Amino acid sequence: MSAGALPQRAAAALIYQHSDVERQQEVASGLGQLVRAARQKGKEKPSGADLVQGV
Asked: What's the pTM value of the predicted model, to 2 decimals?
């Protein structure tokens, strides 16, 4: 890494910090979709407690 290079996370944070409101809304919407999909997937698969209880 060169002396002036930032770690990847720091660089990403700076880019996000300086992005416009529209882009931030797009990113938030995309993250929201990922969270909803993961939650839905979790509902479809029985939990360990459900398996033990025979639910």
From this structure: 0.46
